From TrEMBL:
Top-level taxon of origin: Bacteria
Signal peptide residue numbers: 1-21
Name of protein: Outer membrane lipoprotein carrier protein LolA
Coiled-coil features, chain-numbered ranges: none
CDD domains: LolA
Keywords: Lipoprotein, Signal
């Protein structure tokens, strides 16, 4: 499950931003990235629901899944797949535990050893650092999302440090007004595209640390450091 590092979380602060002017597109993108980073830098914890659509090269029907995500600074993340099957992924800094109830098994390993199509975990965990970890460009001659905000094309600056070299770019749509990330589309070298859409976003609600602690059954099988490295 390989991934990339750099940007999701930040809160609904009371900062007010001026309306978009008629600056050139590069300047609009630069300002938008600064606002997204500022939002996420102000967030202590974050929760949302997500849907995932994965289009695999050569297959006509995309894979669909959904669940929820929790993030808390510093360095804690929980990603729950609830449909069509249940998986719970817990991250603390670079350490990862994946619990699959159906198999009564926990897989342990490093976050940087995950594949990108599973979940954009490292990117979400690295909240508020888009400008630091990515080259950011306008998308497809200035395509826009909701509210007319430009879609952002994120190119990892350092594949080895930020995650999987199989991911060539990420297309991100930003939510107007809150400047949270509304969607992420991860494009891989293979042609596969995984799109994540986030709804019911809530920030700074005081998520308890117990949410990020895995408490499996006593008879669960634990497998150490077996997550494949790509």
């Amino acid at each position: 499950m390989k991934i990339i590092l750099a940007g999701f979380l930040m809160a609904v602060s009371l900062i007010s931003f001026p309306a978009w002017g008629k600056e050139n597109l590069d300047q609009q993108v630069h300002e938008l990235v600064a606002r997204v980073d500022a939002r996420y830098a102000a967030t202590k914890d974050f929760r949302a629901e997500f849907t995932q659509e994965t289009r695999i090269e050569g297959f006509e029907t995309p894979l669909q899944s959904s669940g929820r995500v929790f993030i808390k600074k510093p360095g804690r993340l929980r990603w729950d797949y609830l449909e069509p099957s249940v998986e719970h992924i817990y991250v603390h800094n670079d350490r990862l535990e994946m619990y699959v109830p159906q198999h009564n098994q926990i897989l342990k390993g490093n976050l940087t050893m995950m594949v990108a199509t599973k979940a954009p975990l490292a990117l979400l965990q690295g909240a508020g650092k888009l400008a630091e970890h990515f080259e950011v460009h306008p998308t497809d001659n200035g395509r826009t999302g909701e509210g007319g905000l430009p879609l952002l094309t994120l190119i990892p600056k350092n594949h080895g440090q930020l995650g999987s070299s199989s991911v060539t770019r990420i297309i991100s749509e930003i939510q107007p007004g809150t400047y949270f990330i509304r969607s992420l589309a991860l494009h891989e070298v293979s042609g596969n595209i995984s799109t994540f859409r986030f709804t019911n976003v809530k920030a700074n609600t005081g998520i308890d640390d117990t949410v990020f602690t895995l408490n499996p059954p006593e008879d669960v099988v634990i497998v150490e450091d077996v997550l494949p490295q790509g």
